[in-house]
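ARCHIVE CARD
CATEGORY: sequence design from structure
SOURCE FIELD: tokenized fold
FIELD CONTENT:
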């Protein structure tokens, strides 16, 4: 059956599958084969592994159970590229992914082509009844790969930050940040609906959502105010210059212990231009900073949103600024306020909400049940999106999550505060 003979909904998904898979290769293209095999820390994965694992997902959840007579390219890949799916068998340890010098990058690319060919066969050959069963998993796989596209960039950036040359991942001049003054926007609170209507997820009216984004439910919010823009590098430098990393009163206990343990004195990729100055006291205050990013090491732009912050740093800055981080429901409720800017195109925004299940949450069926629910402990929610998030991947209900000390992602902050009483207008 040719592409033109497929029903429209299948044809659309088949073409999006091709586009998403191609984009992963495009993102990895600037990296050498050596770059793509290395692992800079246990929480990061090699670019080669990301490309293989996203292929494994389609193979393990779709091809093996649903395509008759499917033959894996290499049976050992099922062990090598499983991430955390206990129900699908043992796997190679995450901290040792950088030791997988074999298969080669060429062999991983051949694996991707093998999986792609057979996914297209599955789309073309399956019955209508089978299509109804596999289409949600295929859609999930596309969004899963888009998540790994962002991880590929953030992990590669961390790897390159460890190199003395600090090479650029993108050989181009970054687009300038459109400046603007941050203003306090008021939300009157009350009973609001948050979350995605997962009962209708995947339908034309609601679109895709991960299982952790629902069910949609009501929460009560007290009146609050939220900043229209993200905290900038210039804002954060003032926190540093005021001794923010030396003053424990701004920090949560675990945050202060983490600062002391790791010797933090600035966001992750900030480089002190005074480090070679013998007169510098090396405490960060009054330093001249450069920032390492996708475009290499560049002078710090005071107007750019600050990124690569842990939750601890975001919460400390908010305390220093006389504000706080928004809760997850506050962020979602405020996302439609007129004047809200930089919602999903710069940095993920830490919230003060723990990553817990919504009331009535139920994980997906089958192997995909392990996708989100089992991580609902010890993590904080981030909202929005970043400059590394694939276009079209974010939603106002999207719930990203990381442990509070994580800071190699494109993570920043937006301030909130309890609303001040409205000024009464004299009669």
């Amino acid at each position: 059956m040719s592409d033109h003979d497929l029903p429209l909904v299948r044809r659309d998904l088949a073409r999006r599958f091709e586009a998403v898979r191609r984009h992963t290769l495009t993102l990895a293209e600037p990296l050498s084969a050596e770059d793509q095999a290395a692992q800079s820390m246990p929480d990061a994965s090699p670019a080669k592994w990301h490309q293989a694992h996203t292929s494994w997902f389609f193979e393990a959840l779709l091809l093996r159970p649903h395509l008759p007579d499917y033959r894996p390219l290499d049976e050992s890949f099922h062990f090598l590229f499983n991430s955390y799916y206990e129900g699908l068998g043992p796997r190679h340890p995450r901290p040792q992914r950088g030791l997988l010098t074999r298969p080669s990058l060429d062999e991983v690319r051949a694996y991707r082509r093998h999986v792609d060919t057979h996914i297209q066969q599955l789309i073309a050959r399956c019955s209508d009844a089978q299509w109804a069963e596999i289409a949600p998993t295929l859609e999930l796989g596309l969004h899963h790969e888009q998540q790994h596209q962002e991880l590929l960039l953030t992990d590669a950036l961390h790897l390159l930050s460890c190199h003395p040359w600090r090479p650029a991942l993108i050989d181009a001049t970054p687009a300038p940040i459109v400046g603007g003054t941050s203003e306090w926007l008021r939300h009157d609170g009350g009973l609001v609906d948050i979350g995605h209507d997962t009962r209708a997820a995947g339908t034309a009216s609601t679109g895709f959502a991960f299982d952790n984004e629902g069910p949609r439910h009501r929460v009560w919010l007290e009146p609050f105010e939220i900043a229209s823009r993200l905290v900038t590098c210039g804002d954060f430098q003032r926190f540093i210059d005021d001794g923010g990393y030396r003053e424990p009163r701004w920090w949560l206990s675990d945050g202060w212990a983490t600062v002391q343990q790791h010797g933090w004195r600035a966001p992750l990729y900030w480089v002190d231009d005074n480090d070679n100055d013998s007169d510098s006291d090396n405490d960060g205050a009054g330093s001249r900073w450069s920032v390492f990013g996708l475009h290499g090491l560049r002078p710090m732009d005071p107007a750019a949103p600050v990124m690569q912050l842990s939750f601890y740093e975001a919460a400390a800055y908010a305390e220093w600024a006389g504000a706080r981080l928004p809760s997850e429901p506050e962020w979602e409720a405020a996302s439609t306020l007129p004047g809200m800017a930089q919602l999903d195109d710069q940095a993920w925004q830490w919230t003060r909400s723990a990553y817990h299940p919504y009331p009535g949450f139920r994980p997906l069926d089958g192997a995909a049940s392990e996708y989100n629910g089992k991580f609902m402990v010890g993590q904080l929610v981030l909202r929005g999106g970043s400059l590394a998030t694939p276009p079209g991947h974010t939603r106002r209900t999207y719930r990203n999550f990381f442990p509070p000390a994580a800071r190699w992602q494109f993570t920043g902050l937006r301030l909130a505060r309890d609303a001040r009483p409205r000024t009464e207008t004299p009669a």
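CARD ANNOTATION: Residues 128-161 form the longest helix (34 residues). The CA atoms of residues 168 and 295 lie 5 Å apart.
SHELF: design records, drawer C
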